[in-house]
Amino acid sequence: MTTIPLDPEARTALQETLVDWFIKNQRDLPWRQNYTPYQIWISEVMLQQTQMERGIIYFKRWLLAFPDIQSLAQADESRVLKLWEGLGYYSRARNLHRCARILVEEFQGRIPDDITILQRLPGIGPYTAGAIASIAYNRDAPVVDGNVGRVFARLFNIDRKLNDPACKKELWRLAADLLPPGRARVFNQGLMEFGALICTPKNPRCDNCSLMGFCVAHKLGLTAQLPVPNKGPSTISIEMATGVLCHQGRFFIQQRKNRDVWGGLWEFPGGEREKNEQPAETVVREFMEETGLVVKVDQKITTVTHHYTRYRVTLHGYTCTLADRQNISTPILNAAQDCGWVCLQALDEYAFPAGHRQLIEFIKKMQ
Fold first, then answer.
1. Are the C-beta atoms of 221 and 211 separated by less than 8 Å?
2. Which residues pair with 312 in a beta bridge?
3. 288: closest CA among 243, 247, 325?
4. Could you give the domains of the chain?
5. From the candidates 44, 170, 193, 290, which is the catalytic residue?
6. Separation CA 315–CA 356 (nearest Å)
7. Per-residue pLDDT for 1 more than 50?
8. pLDDT (average), residues 325-348
9. Can you give the pLDDT at residue 321?
10. Are 130 and 191 within 8 A, CB to CB?
11. 44 catalytically annotated
12. What is the dihedral of CA 255, 51, 137, 94, to 10 degrees?
C-alpha cells in the first residue's frame, strides 16, 4: 500500500476544502433537519444495502409509524417487519426493535454518544457507532464506509483491496488522522457525500472535483483503476417452488421461525426443487413435509427471480387446492412457528419475502 502523508498545512487545507464543499452541496435529507440521534440511527441502518431514494421513502413512512424510541420499543415485531417489507436484510429491522427495547430499559430511552457503548447494542458495528456519535452528537469519531474507502483509495493511491483486513485498519487510521476536532458532523458527512456525488464508483466527476489538488490517483492517471476491485463471493443459484393454497376464499400462510432466513416473515409453503423433480411436484411434497396437508396443483401463477445476499432465487409459484377432505384447523407446522387462513385483502397486512410478495401481486391480477 502506498499512502502520501500530509503535512499539517496540507491536512488543514484538505479539511477546510471538504467542509466548505459539503456546506454548499449537501443534499436536503430529512434526517439532516435537526440531527436527532434517533433519526440518525434509523437512517444509517436503513441506508445499509439500500439506495438513497428508496431509503428516504421508507424513512418517512417509518417515522409516521414510529416517531421515537418509545413507540418503536412498544411495537409488535410483526408491525416492524411489515414496515420494513421490501428493504430486505430483515435482521436490521429486528435489531432496531431489540435495540429500542434495550435503550428504553437500560438507557432511559436515550441513545448513547460513546462508540464503545454503542457497539454493545444489537446491530451497531464500528461504522454505525461512529456515524451516530459524530453526526448526531458531533463527537470526534471517524467513519469508514464504501464511499469513504473509495475517496481515500484515490486521494492517497491505496493500491490494495479495500476489504483486506490490513487495508481496513489503514482506512480507519486515515479517517481518524484526518478528522478535524470539533467538526466531525460536517467532515464525516462531507466525505460520504463526496463519494456519493463526485468520487463515484464509475465515471467519477474529476472535472468538478474540489479535492483534485490533493488526489494522488489523479496526478498519476490512476483514477479509473482505483479502488482495486474486491473479489466478491460467487453467486449461488437456487430453484424453488411454492404453492398458494386457497380454501373457501381464504389463503393458507405460515410464519417462518425466528432463527430461519427471513425469520418472522410470512410465506406460502414451499422449498427447494430436488433433482429430477418438477416444480409442481415440489409443491406437493413440501406441503406434506411442512404442514401435513395433501394438495393438488391447479395452475402456474408465474416464475419470479429475486436476490438474497449471494443467492439468486428462481421461485415457481402455483395455485393449489386441498386434494381431499382434511382437517385444516390443526396443520402440522414442521417449518413454521404460526399459520393462518386469510382473505386476499388481508395478505397486505403481513410481511412477506420479496418473491412471495410478487406472487401476491400476480394473484390479485388473476382474481
1. no
2. 237, 307
3. 243
4. 8-225 (1.10.340.30), 236-366 (3.90.79.10)
5. 44
6. 9
7. no
8. 90
9. 95
10. no
11. yes
12. 10
The length of the chain is 367
Please give the Cα distance from 62 to 85 (Å, whole number): 11
Neighbours of 71 (CB within 10 A): 12
Residue 152, Cβ neighbours under 10 Å: how many? 25
Q: Which three cell numbers stand for residue 362?
A: 400476480
Chain centre distance of CA 336: 24
Q: Say if residue 227 is preceded by a cis peptide, omega within 30 of 0.
A: yes
Beta bridge partners of 314: 239, 305
d(C-alpha 87, C-alpha 265), whole Å: 13
φ/ψ of residue 240, rounded to 5: -130, 165
Q: Residue 145 is placed in which grid cell?
A: 464506509
> Concatenated DSSP letters for 105-134?
HHSTT-----HHHHTTSTT--HHHHHHIII
8 A C-beta contact, residue 258 and residue 264:
yes
pTM recorded for the entire structure = 0.90
Stretch 122-146: mean pLDDT, rounded?
98
Of 332, 361, 337, 336, residue with least CA distance to 347: 361
pLDDT in tens, 234-260: 889 999 999 999 999 999 999 999 888
| Cα 8 off chain centre by | 38
**CA-to-CA separations, 281 to 50, 73, 270, 286, 335, in angstroms, rounded:** 36, 43, 10, 9, 18
At residue 330, the pLDDT reads 77
Stretch (H or E) spanning 270: strand 270-272
**CA end-to-end distance (rounded Å), the chain:** 61
Listed residue (241, 238, 239, 269) closest to 253, CA to CA: 269
Q: In whole angstroms, how far apart are CA 33 and each of 28, 29, 132, 136, 183?
A: 8, 7, 15, 11, 18
